[in-house]
Amino acid sequence: MESIWKWIKKGNTSSATAAVGNAGLALVKGAAALISGSGAMFASAMHSVADAVNQGFVFVGSVLAEKKPTPRFPTRE
């Protein structure tokens, strides 16, 4: 059985980077929204959170796509 770490290393690096970057943007925008009280900045922060979560799902999907076929799931179609 392959280790989880090996799967993660095979994952899509660009989606992982985008997830981390969007999470960082969400934190900065969230802080700016708290300081300024701007509803538009809060909405932008929430959009960045959604983007980070989406990219996280893309990364997890790319990791799972690298798994070898099993008797239960013999094909990767």
Question: What would your notes on this structure say?
Answer:
By secondary structure, the protein is mostly helical. It has a domain at 12-64. The protein has helices at 4-10, 13-36, 39-64. Helix 1 crosses helix 3 (39-64) and helix 2 (13-36) runs antiparallel to helix 3 (39-64). The longest helix has 26 residues, at 39-64. The two termini are 21 Å apart.
Please outline the major beta sheet: none
The chain-level mean pLDDT equals 88
Question: Which percent range fits the helix content?
Answer: over 70%
Q: What's the β-strand tally?
A: 0
Structural class: mainly alpha
Low-confidence stretches: none
Q: What is the H/E string?
A: HHH
Principal-axes shape call: elongated
Q: How many H/I helical runs?
A: 3
Radius of gyration: 17 Å
Distance between the termini: 21 Å
Beta-strand residue percentage: under 5%
